[in-house]
From TrEMBL, chain A:
InterPro entries from the UniProt entry: Nucleotide-bd_a/b_plait_sf, Ribosomal_uL23-like, Ribosomal_uL23/eL15/eS24_sf
Organism name: Chilo suppressalis
The protein's name in its UniProt record: Large ribosomal subunit protein uL23m
Ribonucleoprotein keyword on record: yes
Signal sequence range: none
Keyword annotations: Ribonucleoprotein, Ribosomal protein
Gene3D superfamilies according to UniProt: 3.30.70.330
Organismal lineage: Eukaryota, Metazoa, Ecdysozoa, Arthropoda, Hexapoda
Ribosomal protein listed as a keyword: yes
One Pfam family this sequence matches: Ribosomal_L23
Family: Belongs to the universal ribosomal protein uL23 family.
From TrEMBL, chain B:
Keywords per UniProt: Mitochondrion, Ribonucleoprotein, Ribosomal protein
Localization annotation: Mitochondrion
PANTHER family: LARGE RIBOSOMAL SUBUNIT PROTEIN UL29M (PTHR21183:SF18), RIBOSOMAL PROTEIN L47, MITOCHONDRIAL-RELATED (PTHR21183)
Pfam family, one: MRP-L47
Designated name of the protein: Large ribosomal subunit protein uL29m
UniProt xrefs under InterPro entries: MRP-L47_sf, Ribosomal_uL29_mit
UniProt key word Ribonucleoprotein: yes
Family: Belongs to the universal ribosomal protein uL29 family.
Length: 150, 252
């Protein structure tokens, strides 16, 4: 597939072997909530259900029971101030069913980042407080520079 | 159409091989392997990178580095890169969903560049092999054709389920009463040719006038240079015009 060009499949011919597939798949957070063994993917437009199944089984070694796909239309937007319409690309979304005993929960990637945000907010508030106290201290002598007193 | 993906060997482990180690001081490259895990978690970055704001990586693979690799190595590296790209796409998508900054988005470009380079090398080898064996490049054949609106076009040949003489849909527009001979196409071609002619004419006039102005401003110009710059302009004729004369008494 280095030339990115599929020969036509005719019945009886050997199945097409793809040596360097350039298909991409990305795991997306399911909306709304799904059963534990259902995973949502967004994948390249050219992929068929068979492709998706083989891709996951052969490259990622994930057992796949069933694949359903849908193509969602990209949003239409009007460029502000320009007047013309812009359309986002269409997306292919695959709903992959894993075996019953398997379960997958989409991880919360920004859990730690939230804690960091809280810490940042705390330090910011502290800084604000100290600045206010500094201003209060120097209420009566506005012209004196900050390094003048301890 | 069922496509069987080549099974990739257990060397497909995370990120160690993906970016080239580019530190010059390392004399001995130690071989690292992490335990291979085939899992859906492969779509995500390693956990320690989740809260990072700056993830440092090396550069992408260069063509010359890939040329000395064997075919199997390239094949394995392709799948490593493919997985890495999927991982980066997933993380980018999730970051966008959560309105966060995706750390170091240039990683995607680096992986993509490496993949492009691998493809280039594979293609080179394919062409070399085909030339040796068959005398042809083995690339997709390209044909010069006249397209439906009467313009020349490069057509990349492809396979059809039926032969050309049976393909009435393909033949129809090229017949005597077909689309290519219609009034609309003829009118389009006429106007198109007129436009092209006008562009050419205007360019010619523009050059001619410009040469006249140059001759006016710089009477001692190097004529050979001028001739090489504007080969289509008749310089002897331009010299004699009123525009090229300048505000001084003529020498002749």
């Amino acid at each position: 597939m280095s030339t990115r060009w599929y020969p036509l499949y005719q019945r009886g011919n050997p199945q097409l072997r793809v040596f360097l597939p350039n298909f991409w798949m990305k795991l997306i957070r399911p909306t709304p909530k799904q059963l534990k063994n259902i995973v949502h993917f967004q994948c390249s437009m050219e992929m068929t259900k068979c492709d998706i199944k083989n891709y996951l089984e052969k490259i990622y070694n994930i057992p796949v029971i069933d694949v359903r796909t849908k193509i969602t239309m990209g949003k239409f937007k009007k460029e502000v101030g320009k007047g013309y319409v812009i359309k986002d690309d269409d997306r292919k979304i695959a709903f992959v069913t894993l075996p019953k005993n398997m379960s997958f929960e989409f991880p919360d990637i920004f859990e730690k980042v939230k804690d960091q945000d809280d810490e940042n907010m705390k330090s910011l508030e502290e800084a604000k407080k100290s600045f206010k106290s500094f201003i209060n201290r120097n209420k009566d002598r506005k012209d004196v520079p900050s390094w003048f007193t301890i | 159409m069922n496509k069987l993906f080549q099974r990739c060997a257990s060397i497909l482990n995370k990120s160690q091989n993906i970016y080239r180690n580019c530190s010059a001081l390392v004399l001995k490259n130690e071989f690292h392997t992490t335990s291979t895990k085939f899992d859906l978690m492969e779509f995500f970055d390693s956990k320690k990178n989740w809260s990072e704001t700056n993830i440092k990586v090396g550069r992408s693979w260069k063509l010359d580095e890939l040329r000395i690799k064997s075919n199997t190595d390239l094949h394995k590296l392709w799948y490593v890169l493919l997985k890495e790209r999927n991982m980066l796409y997933t993380m980018e998508h999730e970051c966008n969903e959560k309105v966060r900054l995706f750390p170091n988005p240039e990683r995607i470009d680096k992986v993509q560049e490496s993949m492009d380079n691998i493809e280039k090398v594979v293609r080179e080898r394919n062409i070399a092999y085909y030339k040796l064996e068959t005398g042809e490049t083995g690339e997709r054949p390209v044909e010069d054709v006249i397209n439906l609106i009467g313009l020349p076009e490069k057509y990349e040949k492809k396979e059809y389920a039926i032969p050309r003489f049976m393909n009435s849909r393909w033949v129809k527009p090229y017949l005597e009463n077909g689309y290519i001979n219609s009034v609309a196409v003829k009118k389009f071609l006429r106007l198109y040719k007129e436009k092209q002619y006008n562009e050419k004419r205007k360019a010619k006039n523009r050059d001619y006038n410009h040469v006249q102005q140059l001759l006016k401003r710089f009477p001692d110009l190097d004529m050979e240079l001028l001739k090489s710059e504007y080969p289509d302009v008749d310089i002897e004729k331009a010299k004699r015009t009123k525009k090229a004369r300048g505000h001084f008494m003529p020498k002749y």
